[in-house]
Amino acid sequence: MDLIAPTRHTDNLMDRMVAALRRAEGPNQRDPSSKHKPTGLRSTDMRIPLQPLYPSNGIIDPSVPLGGSLELSDSQSQAYFGHLLPRRSREGALLVRKWLREAHRKESIDTPVRSRAGPVQQAELQALAQNLAQQAECGMKHHLAVSYGFAAAQTLSPEHAQKWDMMSSNENQIMLASTPEEIVAMFVDLIRNTTKDQAVLNLDDVMQLLVLAYSLGLEGMGELPLFSGEEQQIMDAITDALVNGSAPIPSWMADLCASIREVRS
Fold this sequence. Notes:
Layout: H1 13-20, E1 22-23, H2 27-30, E2 46-48, E3 66-67, H3 75-84, H4 89-106, H5 122-134, H6 136-141, H7 143-155, H8 158-176, H9 180-193, H10 203-217, H11 228-244, H12 254-264
Antiparallel strand pairs: 1-2, 2-3
Helix pairs in contact: 1-7, 4-5, 4-7, 5-7, 8-10, 9-10, 9-11
């Protein structure tokens, strides 16, 4: 977590990629015996949903991850990373599309889709990256462009884009809140919404927002921005969501939820 501006969901393509991509499992996740050991830092080995460049049966499976594609192991990968790092989402997606189309042009490969005016679409990046990956030698030669193409496509998917935008909107509301009552009402509503079907945000997301509220959003409200009664409203909402919610419980809350159920029974 960034201790200066924790959990801020800014309009940056690399930030979105880091949040959207799977991570390699850490030692504690692989070892069942370490279930109750302290959780370490998240792995920086991000997994891009990039299919094998040499599929044995000729069928592409986009769900198969290939790790290490964003590691800064050489000057070329560092250059790609450096170009994307400061870019906003729209600018970054345009740059990734440019890389993919340049790769097609250099290899004299027909592009499967035509570019359209406006924001880059997930389907276009997916099609361009997939078309290069299917050409074995070209896919290996331009593996960085292909990797970033698949990563950006996943980032632009409705699932990830909707959650990111909603988190960003809630963060802005927290920053603009002027009274503790506004903060409490907002979080009670957010927590209750996590128990609904088709909820976009889960309890883990709301807890991230709560960290932001305490660290930044409550500045200027005094040393104790929330009194015990106000905090109790949030705690009660969290307890109800843990016990009654149908959504998956964050792994770090599993033991707490079990204890609450035991006490209530």
